[in-house]
Amino acid sequence: MSDKLKVGILGATGMVGQRFNTLLDNHPWFEVTTLAASKSSAGKTYEEAVKGRWKMDTPIPEAVKNIVVKDVADVEDIAKEVDFVFSAVNMSKEEIKAIEEAYAKAETPVVSNNSAHRWTPDVPMVIPEINPEHYAVIEDQRKRLGTKKGFIAVKPNCSIQSYTPCLAAWKEFEPTKVVVSTYQAISGAGKTFKEWPEMVGNIIPLISGEEEKSEQEPLKVFGHIENGKIVKAEGPIISAQCIRVPVLNGHTATVSISFNKKPTKEELIDRLNNFKEQPQEFKLPHAPEHFIRYMEEENRPQVTLDVDYEGGMGVSIGRLREDNIFDYKFVGLSHNTLRGAAGGAVESAEMLTKLGYITKK
Q1: Cα-based angle 164, 133, 21 (whole degrees, multiple of 5)
Q2: Residue range 47-57: average pLDDT?
Q3: CATH number of the domain located at residue range(s) 159-334 in this protein
Q4: 159-334 matches 5-157+342-354 in CATH topology
Q5: Active site residue 242
Q6: Active-site choice (117, 134, 251, 286)
Q7: Which top CATH class is 5-157+342-354?
Q8: Please, which pLDDT band fits residue 1 given cuts at 50, 70 and 90?
Q9: What is the DSSP string of 151-202?
Q10: Which of 180, 263, 314, 329 suits a disulfide with 309, CB 3.0-4.6 Å?
Q11: Where is the signal peptide (predicted)?
């Protein structure tokens, strides 16, 4: 019998669920043993369930092709078969909250890609390189849920990944104001160009709900635990615009920033290039060796050249220069379905395993 942790994927047939399957193929710690989706997919093999709608560049992993998809609502049956689950279900926010809590109460840790529980006060929302100390709130969450093993942990929105790491790297200089515009790929909406032809050569200046997430979620990431809840940070003040652009993968951000303690350009670049935290120290399987890199070329980062940096788990920064209104401005790039979605969740599960929050049942 394998010593690997048994993993279930909820919402396995959607784009993020598909990405989870590709990332977990031959994972050294985790083995996908259960796939779950809606009733319409239940009872089919995974290969049958995604026929005609497989969106990844690589083939369906052989290890999951013949797994029979279960109904995601069969919580008790699925919980008996797995040590933990990844959640990428496509439901209403209230339905997601309910089903994720049901799995947690069935003593099954849930590592979620969804936004439903991001503002639940005792649910940690973590970028492993930035705020893994927030996982400590899990003990308070377990008391609320009445569980010994079960809990919910989430990752932040994909749109914040291309600039929030910089704010963490520059924390000592006390960022005070940030104005950011994100230019977001269509895969962030679970689409390809074949499914969304009106995006070819087009820009849509609204992504519903995205700007509030971009302004508020970094503040929870930079917050602290108080009385069993995560209290968001008071600053920096962030103003965001989020725009959908005709790019398949990769979210680009243009950012202007002011500091309480103004650094030199050289100090800022140094902090980016030397930013290493626990995932790197632990050598987690999906942790990038270099989380953030600074690119000296004037025309970088570019999506076609740089989105796959560190297997899509790293963040590329460039064009750092002084600003006429703020102190500095720069451009950031991150892979939205790897670092920003399934990959970030897998790295989070690795960190939770390393810290002892996820164990065999």
Answers
A1: 70
A2: 94
A3: 3.30.360.10
A4: no
A5: no
A6: 251
A7: alpha beta
A8: very low
A9: -EEE---GGGTTTHHHHHHTGGG-EEEEEEEEEE-GGGGT--TTT-GGGTT-
A10: 314
A11: none
